[in-house]
């Protein structure tokens, strides 16, 4: 029994799949009775691999733990329909005695389905899972009777520090994902991430495109630890599965005692007959399914000021207040004190975090006095923490009994060690030092950073990967605790920038730091990339002012912030009159555009940017409101563009009602919005309205 999805509008394109392959030249030398092989077999709703059982063949050992032949049996299925949606629960069994419950749910209004799978041990003795998929999608593609040569494409998003969200489109054939002549060999492209930075190397996402039918299938994992996706093929059909990284890939093994059940992280599945962008947008609303009461101010997408790119880890009280006044005048409503507020004498801020005692040098009257002064300026004060780790010069670094170990030794990565978040004493300590400080000092915003990864995992469970999984569950539970104990607090998710921009973490927070690209030319490129992976209303983008910036340079930076949540930084207290005027113009336009940023659809135009550090070409991102009556358009020029005009199409009758640019005004004519940059690395922002507005 396999899971198949396709857009309802494409049902007329479905074809009857062939049952046999009898015309492959590779079979010609066989006796006539052996010149026909099965074209395909059904996939399974779930794949699990038990320790000690016979392993799959097809030369798959070390490549894949998926089953090469059916090894689960259907028991029953229940379909429950209600006004809220549909839940389909399928019960399977895998011998010896493992019950598998596959749950597919759809909520009214959603354009995706959510899938999770549970595995329960019905034996009288323990069993161990080496693989437990969250989902498996089979039958790709249902729009070609055979193996669809040249039609199947794999889409992924590569991600590294300060270079998040690079799109990749690769043919199935380029990845060796084509059927062999006798269908004997397993072909697998297993990829993912091992560690506690889930968006490192790749985002936990995969899409398959049938270019002949114009249909896309996509899956995103809502999980913040080690994960894997697998594109698997042995016959005509391509299959895609994913979930926790398995024993081969992620050092994960999970023991189930008699009667014990394990539930996998959810996967989000969608299909689109339109485009990859449309597919991605169908998956994003999961991240906005809040289980907490947000701060009322969040409804307006307030501008943030973070002092980090000004003080660089030295946020002294007087300097902070000068910046806060300038930030308020520039339109910020939130002021965040970043790393270094805990710096102790003779210890650098990079090495001293973990004790969470405010610096007597920077805050002689205590950090609560600074927070109070920020509030008196009409701003919400925020504070930076790196909750899960401690620096080498902190007292916490020597608390070895409360830190994570691997192979019996304290786990040290670079200059950091990691708290054991499964230890009640650690949770009590963090509750006092983090939640207690935020409450007592009156902070209304917390930036949760995370600047290293556990790697393969830690001691404390039956496998390093399971130890890691428990740590991820624990930090997410701690974020929920912060929200319970501090109602209305605004929470930012940061992990050296964008290493935790995945659905499970993003659903717990108000926004995430898009990247550690603070001042580079690649900022608008990354910001545009991430509109496919996280909602713009949750993508906090740096816009760092420098006193030497000319108008064009300044606008290039600030315009990128219109692609998400605008986060100002830099010495605004030194801004001249022209800079202040531009900041006010941008503030007013951003506030006007906020409803479209919060809710809309985005499309990127322009040539592919191949080199992020030395970008060439241009891009435009058009974000249209749900009623299609207003749009926000953000242009950026890169290298080797000069003053060549670029443009995007506009619906008939639309006009520019407000715009900011550094050169010639934008012009709307003959169904096009045209912008002529004043030179390389320029920008323009336009707010457009239709004839009904």
Automatic annotation (TrEMBL):
Domain of life, source organism: Bacteria
- Any Pfam family hit: Melibiase
The record's GO molecular-function terms, alphabetically, read:
alpha-galactosidase activity
Signal peptide from the UniProt entry: none
* Single GO biological process annotation from the record: carbohydrate catabolic process
**What name appears for this protein in its UniProt entry?**
Alpha-galactosidase
């Amino acid at each position: 029994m396999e899971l198949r999805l396709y857009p309802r509008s494409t049902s007329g394109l479905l074809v009857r799949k062939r049952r046999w392959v009898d015309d492959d030249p590779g079979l010609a030398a066989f006796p006539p009775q052996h010149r026909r092989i099965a074209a395909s077999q059904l996939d399974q709703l779930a794949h699990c691999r038990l320790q000690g059982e016979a392993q799959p063949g097809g030369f798959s050992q070390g490549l894949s733990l998926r089953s090469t032949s059916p090894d689960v049996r259907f028991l029953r299925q229940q379909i429950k329909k209600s006004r809220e949606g549909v839940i389909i629960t399928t019960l399977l069994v895998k011998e010896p005695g493992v019950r598998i419950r596959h749950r597919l749910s759809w909520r009214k209004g959603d354009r995706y389905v959510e899938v999770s799978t549970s595995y329960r041990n019905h034996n009288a003795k323990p069993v161990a899972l080496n693989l437990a998929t969250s989902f498996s999608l089979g039958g790709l593609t249902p729009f070609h009777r055979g193996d669809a040569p040249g039609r199947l494409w794999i889409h992924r998003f590569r991600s590294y520090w300060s270079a998040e969200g690079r799109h990749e489109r690769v043919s199935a054939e380029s990845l060796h994902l084509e059927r062999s002549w006798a269908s004997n060999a397993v072909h697998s492209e297993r990829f993912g991430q091992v560690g506690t930075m889930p968006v490192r190397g790749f985002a936990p996402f995969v899409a398959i495109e049938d270019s002949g039918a114009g249909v896309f299938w996509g899956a995103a994992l809502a999980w913040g630890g080690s994960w894997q996706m697998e594109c698997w093929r042995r016959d005509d059909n391509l299959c895609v599965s994913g979930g926790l990284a398995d024993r081969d890939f992620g050092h994960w093994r999970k023991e189930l005692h008699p009667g014990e059940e394990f539930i996998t992280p959810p996967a989000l599945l969608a299909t689109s007959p339109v485009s990859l962008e449309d597919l991605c947008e169908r998956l994003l609303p999961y991240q906005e399914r809040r289980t907490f009461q947000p701060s009322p101010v969040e409804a307006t997408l307030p501008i943030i000021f973070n002092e980090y790119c000004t003080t660089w880890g030295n946020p002294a009280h007087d300097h902070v207040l000068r910046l806060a006044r300038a930030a308020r005048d520039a339109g910020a409503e939130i002021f965040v004190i970043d790393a270094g507020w805990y710096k102790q004498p003779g210890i650098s801020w990079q090495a001293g975090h973990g004790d969470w005692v405010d610096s007597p040098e920077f805050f002689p009257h205590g950090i609560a006095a600074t927070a109070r002064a920020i509030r008196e300026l009409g701003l919400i004060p925020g504070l930076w923490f790196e909750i899960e780790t401690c620096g080498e010069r902190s007292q916490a670094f020597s608390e070895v009994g409360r830190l994570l170990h691997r192979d019996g030794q304290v786990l040290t990565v670079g200059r950091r060690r990691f708290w054991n978040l499964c230890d009640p004493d650690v949770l009590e300590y963090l509750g006092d030092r983090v939640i207690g400080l935020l409450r007592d000092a009156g902070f209304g915003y917390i930036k949760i950073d995370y600047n290293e990864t556990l790697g393969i995992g830690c001691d404390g469970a039956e496998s390093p990967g399971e130890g890691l999984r428990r740590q991820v569950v624990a930090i997410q539970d701690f974020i929920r605790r912060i929200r319970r104990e501090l109602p209305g607090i605004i929470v930012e998710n940061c992990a050296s920038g964008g290493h935790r921009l995945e659905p499970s973490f993003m659903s717990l927070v108000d926004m995430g730091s898009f990247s550690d690209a603070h001042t580079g030319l690649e900022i608008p490129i990354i910001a545009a990339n991430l509109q496919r992976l996280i909602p713009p209303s949750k993508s906090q983008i740096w816009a760092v002012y420098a006193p030497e910036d000319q108008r064009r340079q300044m606008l290039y930076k600030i315009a990128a912030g219109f692609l998400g949540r605008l986060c100002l930084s830099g010495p605004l207290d030194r801004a001249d009159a022209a800079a202040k005027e531009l900041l006010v113009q941008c503030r007013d336009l951003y506030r006007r555009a906020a409803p479209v940023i919060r809710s809309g659809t985005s499309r990127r135009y322009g040539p592919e940017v191949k080199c992020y550090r030395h970008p060439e070409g241009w891009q435009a991102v058009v974000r249209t409101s749900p009623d299609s009556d207003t749009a926000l358009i953000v242009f950026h020029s890169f290298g080797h563009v000069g003053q060549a005009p670029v443009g995007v199409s506009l619906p008939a009758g639309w006009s520019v009602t407000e715009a900011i640019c550094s050169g010639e005004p934008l012009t709307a004519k003959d169904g096009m919005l045209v912008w002529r940059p004043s030179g390389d690395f320029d920008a323009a922002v336009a707010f457009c309205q239709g004839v009904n507005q």
